[in-house]
Amino acid sequence: MKLGEEAEGLEYLPYPGELGQKIYENVSKQGWEMWVGHQTMLMNEYRLTPVDPKARKFLEEEMEKFFFGEGSDKPNEFVEPDAK
């Protein structure tokens, strides 16, 4: 979905539930790696912890947007590492 081209698929469900199944069926390994990088940036910029249910819900919503919606935005204050 994210890359718009055929690519190597995932070897396992990367996330539980229906969303994980949808990602497994539609997202490439490279696309998933892109999400992991984006998720790390979101967690660092917003100071999120994966044990917080609100943070998990936010990240799941962003994951859905990243792969199947309009895309997940970067925080307004985020500065690309190359731009520093």
Please provide a written account of the structure:
The protein contains three helices and no strands. With 84 residues, it is mainly α. The chain has a domain at 34-68. The longest helix is centred in the middle third of the chain and has 18 residues, at 29-46. It starts with 16 loop residues before the first helix and ends in a 16-residue tail after the last helix. The mean pLDDT is 89.
**What would the principal axes of the Cα set say about the shape?**
globular
The proportion of residues in beta strands is under 5%
Q: Mean of residue pLDDT?
A: 89
Report low-confidence residues grouped into runs of 5 or more: none
Considering DSSP H and I runs of 4 or more, what fraction of the residues is helical?
40-55%
Distance between the termini: 31 Å
